[in-house]
Amino acid sequence: MQNEFSAEQQQQLLEKLNIPFHPDAISWRVTNKSKDGKRGCVIPYGDQRAYTDRLNGVFTPAGWTRVYNVTTLSPVTRTKKNVAIQTGKVIVTCVVTIHGLGSHSGSGEMWADDDNAMTRAEAQAFKRACCCFGLGRYFYDFAEMWVDLDDYGNPLRIPTLPKWALPAGVVPTKTESAAPARSQPSTAKTTEKTKPAASGLDVGLTQRIEGFRQGVGDALYFEVFRRGGPARNARELPSVDAQHWVVKQLETIERGIQRVRVLAEDVHENVFYGVLDAHKVQSIDKISSFEVLKAVVTDLQNATQGVAA
């Protein structure tokens, strides 16, 4: 399709997509828990409807489209609550096209035994495709945030959204903090904030580092910062040397992830998901640590050698 917008117009439209969502459209999800279950790592996310509303508001409903492609893998054996079950994988690819700007795709996957597998996989794929246009991209800029949990595993408090994660003119308040439905409303704890890039940092390297997050997953991404020093994210690194060190670590992780994907094609899916289950990994982008990544690669290599033999 011929480009309908000038370069300046394209930039203006993309800037509108990059504007953070209103706090009312933000929810929080617990992704990891401490061993005693009293603390949890929370991340903010936007509902699929918020993405749709933004696209409709900027381009009108006629100005963009989305197309889904669904595939399944079955049977697959996985361990659920310490019991081996036969299930499958639902894999969804979504292509979002904005007339005059182009197309981007994203993928999502869920276990088929999940009651909302299709809905969740579709939403994941759609939002990842939108992220390529910059819509919702800022969610990947949040540092790790840990809060106290109630007896049901829900946050007792949620972090206050930092200024850079708010639309212009919006000030976070109790009612705008978007607490999960079952959590107890209260004032936010210490504001968790990603600091602006420090003086002397290479902005290009900062952007490059942040670009790794979606590909390697949150756990591995933040583990690099934990191992490297006090910085919690790319914008808090103390020097260009530190930036280069982080890039090198993330490149190593990225190669490991790519190796897992290549090896996965050489073994039966039951073997592949059996390896993931053995290391308590739900999907490739949720590998929890360097050690687990190495173990997964080793086990898959051994499995492929067994197939070859």
UniProtKB/TrEMBL annotation:
Presence of the UniProt keyword 4Fe-4S in the record: no
Region (Disordered): 175-199
Superkingdom of origin organism: Bacteria
Single Gene Ontology BP annotation: double-strand break repair
Keywords: DNA damage, DNA repair
The family this protein is said to belong to: Belongs to the RAD52 family.
Protein name stated in the entry: Rad52/22 family double-strand break repair protein
Taxonomic source organism: Edaphobacter aggregans
Taxonomic lineage of the native organism: Bacteria, Pseudomonadati, Acidobacteriota, Terriglobia, Terriglobales
